[in-house]
Amino acid sequence: MLQSSVWKLKGFLFFFHSSMTILVSYMPIYFQSQGLSGSQIGSLLAIGPAAAIIAQPFWGFMSDKWKTVKRVLLICLTSALGAGFLLFQMTEFFLLMAMMTVFFSFTSPVGGLGDSLAQKVSVRTNVSFGSIRMWGSLGFGISSLVGGYIFAIIGIGNIYYVYAFFLVIAALFCFLSPDSAPSKKPVQLINALKLAKNGKLALFLAMILTISLTHRMNDSFIGLFIIAIGGSESYIGWAWFIGVLTEAAVFAFSYYWLKQFHPLTLIHFAAILYTIRWILMSVVPDPNLVLAIQVLHGICFGIFYLTAFQFVGRLIPEELESTGHLLFIAVFFGFAGVIGSILGGNIIDLFNPRTLYMVMTVFSVIGVFGSFIYRAYYFRSDEGKKELEKLRST
Q1: How far apart are CA 167 and CA 161, in angstroms?
Q2: What would the pLDDT profile of 227-246 be if each residue is shown by its tens digit?
Q3: What domains sit in the chain, N to C, each tagged with a CATH number?
Q4: Whole-model pTM?
């Protein structure tokens, strides 16, 4: 019965990530159409990740505390729908900043909670996590392609109505989806706070920050970059579609490649690919070649995110799994998003979008070295030594 209802969870992920396409891909264009500068857009885009830094671990802890992911998801989805309506009625910059905080306090935890629910359901149903999560990527990619044509017809000013359409359908699928199995261990705030003393977790999150920073810079400004080199809104849609389609393929076959390599080896590989990707973007002469380079998006992000998300589960107690997942999401999309949006917006104002990708290359190189340093540290720990002994005996 539970296994047959997995398709409802896939439907939720598909339509929620479809709604997120509208925000990630077209919100910068919307703000630009409202007359905001690059630095103002960067500041507004930083509000969402800043709110996520607090909101994501909070809602993750509440889902562990209440022993339900589904009900927390429904609270966040319905609240985001109402807050979004108010947000897109505003034009005053400081009011926009305040409303963005409220809006993303409910929007930002949904992706991580959805992934956490998918991970838990995949274990209970013996269905691979990647085969469930790929539907979120498909939703993101398809709506990014369709969204470009929709906005070319109805105008970017109607962004909320397209966003709300996808979000309402996502909420309906979420209502029908299975919930997580509650942990038998009680969850107290003091237990969650102890995660701050987890050295392996803290260093792992610090290591991924340099790579996720470049990823979030690209998320925020690839639309402006495409327009700067002569592309249109439809090119933005195609860029996201191609990138996320390859991402979905990586997720779909994750059952096979995850078993072949250690997670930290896969993280090395993804970090190196990110570096190659940003080098290519920094020299690309026209938007058509950007579409070709976007194939690397799915490979880089698909391997890096899926591997890191599941590796976090090794570093935290089972009863705090959602809290740990949302803490990881807060770093990947929150901290990295704040720094990336502000820094990226100012680089564009002072120089140009191409310079931004040169800076991203430097950060990704730091991430490559960081991943090797963390690997050496991890395999010196007790857990790492046990893993090495197990690998050598097989």
Answers
A1: 10
A2: 889 888 778 878 888 888 89
A3: 3-176+188-393 (1.20.1250.20)
A4: 0.82
